[in-house]
Amino acid sequence: MCRKIFIAGTQQHSGKSTVSIALMHLARKKYERVGYVKPIGPKVEMVLGKAVDMDAILMARVFDLGEEFDLMSPLAFQRDFTRNFIAGKITTEEIYRRVIHARDELEKKYDFLVIEGAGHGGVGSVIGLNNAQAATLFDAPVMIITGGGIGSAIDAVQLNIALYRQEQARMKMVLINRLLPDKREMALSCLRNAFNPHGIAVFGGFDYSPILANPTMEHVSDLLRIPITGDQDARRRIIHHIQLGAASVQRVIDELKESTLLVVTSSRDELIVTLASLYHIPAFRKKLVGLVISGRHPMARVSEQILDDSRLPYIRLRESTSKAFSILVEDVSKITAVDEEKIAWIKGHAERHIDFAAIDALL
Asked: Domains of the chain (ranges plus CATH)?
């Protein structure tokens, strides 16, 4: 018998992928064959000519699962997928056939299967197969992931539980993620009092960590779809602060925080040159991860030469500074297979914070 768990979320970016990595890591300590599937894949990349969900790619690479993407990502929402479904070019029968085939093959192949949902419970309703229905289709106990807090967590979980129960999914667990360390036990106690009487177990997830929450320079490059110029070895440094270089040169430098990505207008030649010069100083380099140089105005040729010679990583974006800053601060970092520091952190802290034995006992 294949043991299964469906990782649901109260919303997008609730921490499903982080918890899935943790459970994969912990399960492999007990079970010989541990697999993964993302039944509904709304965010895709092309791999070997196929559209594959990004999380399936992540898990395949992190855990060396090979490239059975037809099974790990049976339903990838490539361009115009929902439009084609509504137009009748893709049928409900075809959608269910793909997912059921993946389910049957994976259950034969693995002893333990992590099934990751996409966003909140209703994602996928447009094609007749949402997360709650997928959990029922896999007949897998459901764990809902939600953020820290008490009232907000209860509200978000209850909203999603209603749909899972409507679809007769086996609602078993809630895992509270991004807990504040000094309030962890108090929050978990309150939430257990709220959910345990309804037959739902409550588990603690990870404490809040800027390592997980914050992006790398490479992530920013992927987000903006612009390559990094400068030191390529720094592309995986984690950005802890995003600041706007709008003040005087001296004030910008004085107010730089540790591991900062600085957004600078392309016409600020004096600031760009000063930053490039200071980047040679190791203590200053710790503060500055890189630059996003925005605006349509071209940099002066000599400023660009000095910047290139310094190897200070930068991304040249033609959008306005205000738009560039908004894009960056509104982005939520998504873990990828190259985020080695983040993945190592998840695996290490999973053993301290997540009670896998208790979770496994409920499956």
From this structure: 3-210+336-361 (3.40.50.300), 215-330 (3.40.1390.20)
